Fold Cytochrome C.
Amino acid sequence: MTRWMIPLMGAALLLAAVSARADLPRQELSAAYKADCAACHVAYPPALLPAESWQRLMGGLDKHFGIDASLDAATTKAIGDWLAARAGTYKKVQRERAAPPQDRITRSAWFVREHDEVPASTWQRADVRSPANCSACHRQADQGLYDEHDIRIPR
């Protein structure tokens, strides 16, 4: 191996690491989405679900995972349009052939693959409670950052 190949290989590895960590597009959250949706749960990045899932979720806010999360028509439309315009841009979502069961991010094939090493007992911990509680382990989930190098699983 020649001397010039070592820095070139290092640069290639660094570029691969950066792109692997940056495949979830950063998106500024709309004010309405932050105020109305993130008031109850982490503001899931729109890129994590296809547009048809967001449309169904916004169309069924009166029975949103067991609660009534209804909003006025104008707010529902504004948030729905914003979600649809940014939906499904995560490369792992784009590879899926269909929306996840029950339009749940946690039931999508890519989510299951990414979390397959997490023992079932972890989801039951008091500080975790559910796979949908992203911020329990992803400390910067509220900022849309899910870097696997920044995970801290509560004990």
Observations:
- Confidence is low (pLDDT under 50) at residues 7-22.
- The chain has one domain: 25-150.
